[in-house]
Amino acid sequence: MDSPFVIPLAIFALVVILVALVKVAKVRDQEMEVQRRLHLEELEHRRKMQALQVELERVKAKS
Questions:
Q1: Looking at residue 57, what is its pLDDT?
Q2: What is the pTM assigned to this prediction?
Q3: Helix, strand, coil share (%) of the chain residues, nearest 5
Q4: Can you give the pLDDT of all 63 residues of the chain as single tens digits?
Q5: Cα Dmax for the chain
Q6: SS3 label, residue 3
Q7: Residue 57 and residue 51: Cα distance in Å, rounded?
Q8: pLDDT of residue 34
């Protein structure tokens, strides 16, 4: 443990770990945002499909 390289290597390792954690957190935030946006788009699609279904039934009822 008397090696002069232990402390700088430990500090370097700590910095690498912290940077990795920050990157993982950012990727997770982006993933959550994409999932949220996809869910909203799915809900909007369902609403449009329901409206089209109602319109289709209305047209069928007229004929």
A1: 96
A2: 0.67
A3: 90, 0, 10
A4: 568 889 999 999 999 999 999 999 999 999 999 999 999 999 999 999 999 999 999 999 987
A5: 92
A6: coil
A7: 10
A8: 98
Angle at 10 between CA 9 and CA 13, to 5 degrees: 85
* Sequence-ordered list of residues with C-beta below 8 angstroms from that of 27, at least 6 positions apart, any chain: none
Coil, strand, or helix at residue 12?
A: helix
> Which helix (H) or strand (E) element contains residue 34?
helix 6-62
First to last CA, the chain: 90
Cα torsion through 13, 19, 22, 23, rounded to 10? -120
- Which pLDDT score, from 0 to 100, does residue 1 have? 55
Six token digits for residue 14: 């700590």
